[in-house]
Amino acid sequence: MNQEWSLGFVGLGVMGEPMSTNLVRKSSLPVHVFDMSAEAVARVVEHGALAADSIEALAQQADIVFLSLPSIEQVKEVCAALVASHGRAKMIVDMSTSDVAGTRELAATLAAKGIDFVDAPVARTREAAVQGTLFITVGGTEKHVSMLRPLLECMGSDVLHCGDIGSGQTVKILNNMMVFMTVNALSEVLTIGRRAGLDGEVLFNLLSKGSADSFVLRNHGMKSLMLDKFPEKVFPLVYAIKDAALALNLARQGEFAPHIAQYTYDLMCRTRDAGFGQNYHPAIVQMVDGRITASSD
């Protein structure tokens, strides 16, 4: 790790704030942060970050800029601002979940302007972001990934080089789609079990002892589905729908029509339309078991 580097971090949301905080605490490098939320910036500054008044100001200070943003559109906008500023930034690391084709196009555009680009989306929970134990899937050259690894390991316990640009996004998107489909399956199993007279907690605890055990069962299942807890600001359904749409887009590009993924996407959309778009995405169980319908207010 070059001790002369100065870092930037744009996007201090649910995941970005704890990620940037860990980068500040563990990298021993100056980290300049920017977000539209002054409160989020202030919290990270309390841990030693340096506040930037704008993206352009951040670009004048940072050699490597990390992004944690809602979608590829915001990523493109921030990258355009970084380029237009003619600042120090020579590498951009997108830790958002972004469209694969858009990621590759953006990387090519930036390369023509002398700026390297790496995609490094994150998986696991907000608690993992706080603890610095995220799963980070990285797309880029071996040289760039090796150079970034010490910084990425400040935020994640598992940093996986998946291949060339866009490969990190591909793995992340499919990881999330698998989670959503598993939550859908657990919702159906829970509904059948309850109607057969089994308590949800008993059922999931028993399933965790056998071949049905999984990370999703122990987390989304035990911590949300069986407890009927679907708080806001914890990977809301609208975010899940966005990621599922990215997975379906990948399928279309490969001329494949998935059935389970499409059904799960449609189910999430119906749950959103019933008024649960900002709730934690396992809220779909309420649609599965019939407690709500898409026409609910």
Describe this structure in words.
It is a single chain. This protein is 52% helix and 13% strand. With 297 residues, it is α/β, with parallel strands linked by helices. The protein has 2 domains: 7-164, Rossmann fold; 169-289, N-(1-d-carboxylethyl)-l-norvaline Dehydrogenase, domain 2 (Orthogonal Bundle). A 6-stranded parallel β-sheet has the order 3-2-1-4-5-6, with helices on both faces. Strands 7-8-9 form a 3-stranded mixed β-sheet. Helix 1 (16-27) packs parallel to helix 2 and helix 8 (167-195) packs across helix 11 (237-253). It is globular. The model has no long low-confidence stretch (mean pLDDT 96).
Under the CATH scheme, the architecture of the largest domain is 3-Layer(aba) Sandwich
General form = globular
Number of helices: 13
Widest sheet: strand ordering: 3-2-1-4-5-6
The CATH H-level superfamily of the largest domain is NAD(P)-binding Rossmann-like Domain
Broad CATH class of the largest domain: Alpha Beta
Distance linking N and C termini? 53 Å
Question: What class do helices, strands and sheet pairing give?
Answer: alpha/beta
Observed structural traits:
single chain; NADP binding; 2 domains; 9 strands; N-(1-d-carboxylethyl)-l-norvaline Dehydrogenase, domain 2; globular; Rossmann fold
